[in-house]
Amino acid sequence: NVAHGLAWSFYFGYLKFVLPDLEEKVRNYNATRVRLSSHRLHILLPLNAAAPNKPEDEDNHVVFHENLPELQLNRAGVRQRSYKNSVYKITGHNNETYYCALEYATPLQTLYLMSQDRDAGFGEKERKEQVLLFYRTLSQILENDLECRNRFRLVLINDEHTGEPHYLSREIIQH
Amino acid sequence: NVAHGLAWSFYFGYLKFVLPDLEEKVRNYNATRVRLSSHRLHILLPLNAAAPNKPEDEDNHVVFHENLPELQLNRAGVRQRSYKNSVYKITGHNNETYYCALEYATPLQTLYLMSQDRDAGFGEKERKEQVLLFYRTLSQILENDLECRNRFRLVLINDEHTGEPHYLSREIIQH
Ligand SMILES: Nc1nc(=O)c2ncn([C@@H]3O[C@@H]4COP(=O)(O)O[C@H]5[C@@H](O)[C@H](n6cnc7c(N)ncnc76)O[C@@H]5COP(=O)(O)O[C@@H]3[C@@H]4O)c2[nH]1
Question: Whose C-alpha lies nearest to ligand 1, atom 9?
């Protein structure tokens, strides 16, 4: 049950300390730069685990704006390891603009690559159920952490979107 | 089998691209700075998964020297995500000095924290066997990647070292 461990890893190794820290950053950001439409970190979960490195490649209505100031921590021997989040400008179909910090759930890239590697013992047909298990496990973990629970939004993306060029921006704004 | 997924994640999400990139960095580093005793990334695997954030806390003969230049990549929506490795100076018991890039295997921190959280479904007595499963799985994966195979050293650390203050430096140098 790979998704179970990856959800816990995403929490203990990242969200548990990044989400509380983000709260502070986002408050300072609104005061001085563009006004964010939401304070929450939007975490994108494509159902087929195919997470690209640049959301623009999926939908050109999702455009990188700039990075928030980085957080630096000593982690497991790496000195001043850097954690940063990216703010995107999203354009809706009525031309409304929506700014927020967003990223794909990076562990889904591992699920995807494992399903393609015959040594990893994990196939394409298990992938979707693993993404759903990841989503359910992560939701429960984050709900139980008072320091995290209102600071994120898990956005399940149904990417069997035959040729709809702006499905991603639509799903983020509508959410 | 949490350790299995964490080993694959450590490979696909980190070592697969960091190890080949490190080769280049280390060659430039030797030419201009301190001479590294080994080009390999030393990855520490404490058997009880208790990986501290600063190795100095375990053994003051392992001292941070400086970071290598960082690698920046667009990853899953995060723009210019930073990957860096730290060079340490290790002093042996004959006062010999040994310089190398080293870090604890970060996923072991997840194993440790999961074993402490009663919701994670994973107890302290399974922890050691999960560390060994992580070690075996990771060894196989890295051995099969020609771009990785001579660029790392997995250092299993037996940390049931009753009061030996320099067990870590000894294990790194002797390895
Ligand atoms: N030593 C070290 N230095 C790094 O820069 C690094 N980056 C990743 N890893 C380890 O490789 C594996 C794969 O990483 P992935 O990004 O898929 O998952 C990551 C990712 O989903 C999220 N995360 C961690 N750091 C960041 C970050 N800086 N930005 C975004 N997401 C992050 O939280 C998960 C667990 O992180 P770690 O528990 O630190 O260990 C990871 C993991 O075991 C690293 N290990």
Answer: B14
Amino acid code (one letter) for A110: T
Task: Report the distance separating Cα A21 and Cα A69, nearest Å.
Answer: 11
Strand ranges, E, within A68-110 = 71-75, 78-83, 86-91, 97-104
Q: Please tell me if the CB atom of residue B106 comes closer than 6 angstroms to any atom of ligand 1.
A: yes
Classified as helix, coil or strand, B70 is coil
Query: Do residues A86 and B79 touch, judged by C-beta distance below 8 A?
Result: yes
Distance CA B36, CA B39 (A): 7
pLDDT of res. B162: 62
pLDDT at A30 over 90: no
Say how far apart CA A138 and CA A11 lie, in whole Å: 8
Rounded distance between C-alpha atoms, residue B143 and residue B51, angstroms: 24
Is residue A135 within 8 A of residue A154, CB to CB? The reply is yes
- How far are the Cα atoms of A30, A76, B9, B23, B60 from residue B56, in angstroms, in the given order? 39, 11, 27, 26, 5
β A86-91/A78-83 pair status: unpaired
Whether ligand 1 lies within 6 angstroms of the CB of A78 is answered as yes
CA distances from B46 to A135, B133, B155 (A): 30, 13, 8
- Residues A111-143 pLDDT 10s: 999 999 999 988 888 999 999 999 999 999 999
Query: Helices then strands (H, E): number in chain A?
Result: 5, 7
- Torsion-angle region of A127 (φ positive above 0: left; ψ -120 to 50: alpha; else: beta): alpha
**Token pair listed for A75:** 């982690």
